[in-house]
Amino acid sequence: MNQTYGIAGVTAVVLATVLVGALGLRISRTTSDFYVASRSVPPRLNAFAVSGEYLSAASFLGVAGLVLAQGVDMLWFPIGYTAGFLVLLAFVAAPLRRSGAYTLPDFAEARLESRAVRRIASVLVVGVGWLYLLPQLRGAGLTLRLLTGAPSWFGGLVVAAVVTVAVASGGMRSITFVQAFQYWLKLTALLVPAVFLLLTWRADHTPAPSWDERPVFQRSTPVRFDSPLTLTVHEPVRITATGTVDGRALDGGPHTLEAGSHRIGADTTLRFPPGARVPLPDEGGGHAAPSSWANPLSAGREDHGLYATYGLILATFLGTMGLPHVVVRFYTNPDGRAARRTTVVVLGLLGAFYLLIPLYGVLGRLYAPDLLLTGDTDAAVLVLPKRLIGGVGGDLLGALVAGGACAAFLSTVSGLTMSVAGVLAQDVLPTLGIRHFRLATLPAIAVPTAANAVVSDLPVADAVGLAFAVSASSFCPLLLLGIWWRGLTAPGAVAGLLLGGGSALTAVTVTIAGGARSGPLHTLLAWPAVWSVPVGFAAMVLISLATRDRVPASAAATMARLHLPEALTGGAVVRDAHPDRAV
């Protein structure tokens, strides 16, 4: 990727984000403006903003990378990301808006009249938000590393600084316009290059991927290894090597890799000829194993593919409704009917976007298989324009893609920082107010930025899947039972949040820390939704039945307000706190 063009594209997106965020201070005058845009965002604009912040680095970069590496099983990610809004539309959107809350902890306290439930919900909101922020910052680091050669942590630091300025200056009202713009930028950044990539593919006689075998190099391809690696070669291949191979120093001359394992030294470049099959790294080689790419569950993740698939489906289908940056956007609608209309439009916008992502994964399998060796599969979307098209055209399209990637992590990081800071400002800092909200943006983004410097090898989309699992195990039971079951009690909610959400959060933490790297235990911890979601529901139901006398006295009135149109109830459950306080 041409660094000059790419940096120009990213800089343009960053400047636009900072400018709109700074101008937001001029139109955000009250606390309600700052937190929920005075609940006056029309459905269509809100749908653009929801889609803009929801389509994160995991969607823009990570899904294509997973399709490139692991094949058709990974299509469950875009399916689940979209279908989650269908569940949200059917069961949650309108009642949640009628609650009148600022945050999920607001809703929990109003529904169950319990500070304990609020505090636990606050901890889980912050945990989910930070988990979701990690892969966004990793995507930022990957993009800027490809553009400038800077270390990965630098990109996360830049994004954290930009988002802090934008969120702290303008709040929800300005972020709404930024995220709406960024959705269309991301769609354009994928759609326009896709047209030219398909034309180039046709001009190359439409080669098909190796559906049931390891991918092959379509062209002479140099692969640089920054760190030592052991490769497994299945048939002899003639290469050109500069660096160290099997302890032998080579200076750019021809060399034959015989069948078997070979140790590649750091700072070594190997050039593979056209038609050579991609050798497999010893670590993680199972993801690209023969007969695994185009056949669902054929070489499964850790030999438990069906279980992992169900874990992914449950996490993405049920986790969307509890994502703090998604939920907070429904509070900005004028009423419940507008919230439903917003969700319907979002389904169409997400569908249009996700139709393009598998294309990049398939083309990456053809023209960027070397990413399987370096581990940078998340970079497939970024490198394809230069690989296929080249020249000035490839550089311009690469700059557009880089700008879209920048918009992806900026929009999602803005939404997540906004939601986490809102919880910290209300439940950690002493009083509710704009000054404390601005202070809360610092820890909201600083903690995941610091963690990103430590956890750098987890695939972007996989990391997002972990956040979905925690959300599905905690807030899905709380919202569904809180909205649709009058018998939910505070002790039941506490038990469900602790057992469901707490166990999922523990499993995710162990997975990220590398506590279990293989075997059945690893599978259970890496895909916890299969068992943690039922645990959360069962705990809430059983403990609530055992504590029937603890049903809030206002439960019937609260349920009526959640389900009846606003005109019939005369207002929401939770009133705006300090709606006229000036910024």
From TrEMBL:
Which terms are listed as keywords in the entry? Cell membrane, Membrane, Symport, Transmembrane, Transmembrane helix, Transport
Q: Where in the cell is it found?
A: Cell membrane
A single GO BP term for this record reads: plasma membrane acetate transport
Name the principal localization, coarsely classed.
Answer: membrane
- What PROSITE patterns does the entry give? NA_SOLUT_SYMP_3
Q: Which GO terms fall under molecular function for this chain's record?
A: acetate transmembrane transporter activity; symporter activity
Q: Per the UniProt record, which residue ranges are transmembrane? A: 6-25, 45-69, 75-96, 116-133, 153-171, 183-201, 307-331, 343-363, 396-425, 437-454, 466-485, 492-513, 525-546
InterPro entries reported in the protein's UniProt record = Na/Glc_symporter_sf (IPR038377), Na/solute_symporter (IPR001734), Sodium:Solute_Symporter (IPR050277)
Q: Which Gene3D superfamilies match?
A: Sodium/glucose cotransporter
| Domain of life from the UniProt record | Bacteria
Q: How does it sit in the membrane?
A: Multi-pass membrane protein
Recorded GO cellular component terms are: plasma membrane
Name one matching Pfam family: SSF
Entry similarity comment: Belongs to the sodium:solute symporter (SSF) (TC 2.A.21) family.
Identify the PANTHER family for this entry.
Answer: CATION_ACETATE SYMPORTER ACTP, SODIUM/PROLINE SYMPORTER-RELATED
Protein name listed in UniProt: Cation acetate symporter
State the species of origin: Streptomyces diastatochromogenes
